[in-house]
Amino acid sequence: MSLNDTPSSERVHIAFFGKRNAGKSSLVNAVTGQELSIVSEVLGTTTDPVKKAMELLPLGPCVIIDTPGFDDEGLLGEKRIVKTKAILAKTDIAVLAVDSNIGLSYEDKQFTELLRERKVPYIVAYTKSDICKREFETKENEIKTSSQNKSGIFELKEKLAHILKGVKPDKFILNDIVNKDDIVVLVTPIDSAAPKGRLILPQQQTLREILDLNAVAVTCQTDELPSALSCLAKKPRIVITDSQDFERVAEITPEDIPLTSFSLLFARYKGTLDALISGVHAIDALKPDDKILISEGCTHHRQCEDIGTVKIPKWIEEYTGVKPDFRFTSGTEFPDDLSEFAVVIHCGGCMLNEKEMQSRIRFAEKSGVPIINYGALIAKIHGIFDRAVQPLVQ
């Protein structure tokens, strides 16, 4: 991925929902101007969510998601419905496709209640309006459309763009911390888990913003940090490190230089910092055999020194002196019941969009289970929690 690409986690996620044969897939194809989804008169043609990252005017970079009908039937149909509802966790804006000839059904009304409960803004798009014989008036968040003659499609995109302004305000990673000509040191360890030939996403995004701020980025690995600091003519504004090297970087970095991690920085960027640090002291109350969920938002090949499955469990056992029962999830996998866990430890969530990360946090809070991110946990274990958080909570 180049620095100019918009990562999927930063794109607005627009999902299309509706009953089978409501015209969802045809509507998706009309909105995108592509044959993104298969269209058929056969009920249940869309069997799995279909996702496409694209540039869509006037919306800009977005992810369009077509979903199976939420009225599917049978054992397989029930599994498809579960997948459809799981998409809600990452949906920024929903489009509910409703057949104009039928109008809002009981299932449609139930789904709008679910959207309101999840606080997902939505538009009701009445499809097949070109062949509708029924007279009806639309409300403010409703629109009549036709995928055949494209009526209402432009207006639908305009409505989506209007909602988008409130959903995705401009956000910044460092602009309240770093000024023009400031020096920022980025500590980016290159080990067996590092992606070959590139930096991980938070490092890329942070580096890009430093350049946009007309500041100076100095990038090095942990062993080169003493040399990097000694070469600088003035004190860095801040040092940002990969969480797994927090302890060593803290030892090297003078106390008068602010220090934090990419994990904590991006929790603040996604609006989840307060929630992800508030439960950090739950680690002190762990008892033997307590269940701990360690969850990562991406999927990758596990290395022998993997941070999630190897390093963090080892550090927790050393810090607490007990042996908890660790469970692991990755990617879109996240339990729908957290009641068995004493604490949830989550990665920085760089591959999850803001909506999905916030959804996981809300679910943990509703379940009464503390949720902590990697950066907060590692800082706590190594005795530098206050120092690591301080630059971000001024």
Keywords:
single chain; 6-stranded mixed β-sheet; 14 strands; 394 residues; 4-stranded parallel β-sheet
Give a short summary of the structure.
Helices cover 33% and strands 19% of the residues. The protein is α/β, with parallel strands linked by helices.
Nearest-angstrom radius of gyration?
A: 24 Å
Spatially, the strands of the biggest sheet line up as 2-3-1-4-5-6
Indicate the proportion of strand residues.
15-25%
**Quick one: overall form?**
globular
Low-pLDDT windows of residues: none
N- to C-terminal distance: 33 Å
Q: Name the structural class.
A: alpha/beta
Please provide the ordered H/E string of secondary-structure elements: EHEEHEHEEHEHEHEHEHHEHEEHEHH
Major sheet summary line: 6 strands, mixed
Count of helix runs: 13
According to DSSP, the number of beta strands is 14
Mean pLDDT: 88
Helix fraction?
A: 25-40%
How would you explain this protein's 3D organization?
- There is one protein chain.
- The chain has a six-stranded mixed beta sheet with strand order 2-3-1-4-5-6, sandwiched between helices.
- The chain has 13 helices and 14 strands.
- α3 links the parallel β4 and β5.
- The longest helix has 15 residues, at 153-167.
- The two termini are 33 Å apart.
- With 394 residues, it is an alpha/beta fold.
Topology (elements, then pairings):
Layout: E1 12-18, H1 24-32, E2 50-56, E3 60-66, H2 74-87, E4 93-99, H3 106-117, E5 122-127, E6 142-144, H4 153-167, E7 183-187, H5 201-212, E8 216-220, H6 225-231, E9 238-241, H7 246-252, E10 259-261, H8 262-269, H9 273-278, E11 291-296, H10 307-320, E12 325-330, E13 341-346, H11 354-366, E14 371-373, H12 374-381, H13 385-389
Parallel strand pairs: 1-3, 1-4, 4-5, 5-6, 7-8, 7-9, 9-10, 11-12, 11-13, 13-14
Antiparallel strand pairs: 2-3
